[in-house]
Amino acid sequence: MIMAGRRNTRAEFQERIDKKDAAGESIESWRTVYRSFVSISSLGADKQFDESVNYQVSQFELTAQYSKKLEREVTTSHRVLLKGKPYRITSIGDVFSRKTLSYTIEIYE
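RESULT FIELD:
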C-alpha cells in the first residue's frame, strides 16, 4: 500500500532502454535516472472491462522536490517505481514554480 501525505515514499524514475537478447529480440529493460522522496495523493480508481478481463486503473499524483535534473530528464515516456511496482507517468504538472514537480501516474491491477 502506498502511503499518502508528506514526502516519505521513495520513488525511482526510470527510462526504458533498448536491449536485445542473443537471438536479437528486444527485451524490456529499465534504468533508474533519478531517485527522490515524494508525497502521494490518490486521484481515484476506475474498473475497466476488456472482453473477458476485468482490471482496475488506479491514479495517483506524485509531488517531488524541484530538481533541474528531474525536470529535464523525466518525461511521460518514463515510469516510476514505488515499493517495487511500476507506475506509468501519464502527465507532468506545473514545472514553472521551481519549488515542486508533480506527476500523474497510474497502474493497472
